[in-house]
Design a protein that fits this description.
With 201 residues, the chain is an alpha+beta fold. It is globular, with a radius of gyration of 21 Å.
Length: 201
């Protein structure tokens, strides 16, 4: 018969080791149930040297033409509501979807960079935007793999791949395997999740 570890008596030293192990997740800002921070693809969350402060991640900057380290952006729901329009909040923070052919950028043909409306993270170049006929801005690849992340979305009785901003976890849209060459991907993105920086500005 297996011994119940909860019934086994522990010495003071062993008890302190267990207590330190259990408390460690809280002290380091880690979550034991999920094991990893959201969106890090299996990489443990990083914190500053003293265990507090914003976590930094590597992102590509179109303005600088290179990779840079940026702070992960985290805000409360109240703070997001204060800086976003109701539609932007519903789409980016509540995983909503704007109606087709109603968004600001579905028919935009200007040259520039599409950025996250929540944090300014560079997401897509206009050179990768194409006419998908869906009524939403569509791109065949992100500006850099590091700037976006994906999660499995099983809402609405479907299995889709959700696209999120890696810097602030805002919902952008979904990616499908029916896009053009060279990637064969279609990043179907809500205009409400984007801002647009014209080339040359």
């Amino acid at each position: 018969m297996m011994e119940n570890p909860m019934e086994r008596k522990m010495g003071r030293g062993e008890f302190l080791r267990y207590a330190a192990l259990l408390a460690g997740g809280t002290l380091l800002g880690l979550s034991f149930p999920r094991g990893m921070a959201r969106g890090t693809d299996g990489v443990p969350a990083r914190v500053s040297g003293n265990g507090t402060g914003p976590r930094q991640i590597k992102l590509y900057s179109a303005a600088q033409g290179r990779y840079v380290m940026e702070d992960k952006v985290e805000k409360t729901e109240k703070e997001w509501r204060e800086i976003l329009s109701p539609e932007q909040f519903q789409v980016t923070r509540k995983k909503g979807t704007e109606r087709a052919y109603t968004g600001k950028y579905w028919d935009n043909h200007e040259k520039g960079v599409y950025q996250c409306v929540c944090c300014g993270n560079d997401l897509f170049r206009s050179d990768t935007k194409y006419e998908s006929g869906t009524g939403w801005p569509s791109f065949y690849e992100p500006i850099a793999a590091e700037n976006v992340r994906t999660e499995t979305d099983t809402s609405w009785f479907m299995r889709r791949t959700e696209v999120l901003c890696r810097r602030c976890d805002s919902h952008l849209g979904h990616v499908f395997n029916d896009g053009p060459k060279p990637t064969g991907l279609r990043y179907c993105i809500n205009s409400a999740s984007l801002t647009f920086e014209k080339a040359g500005k």
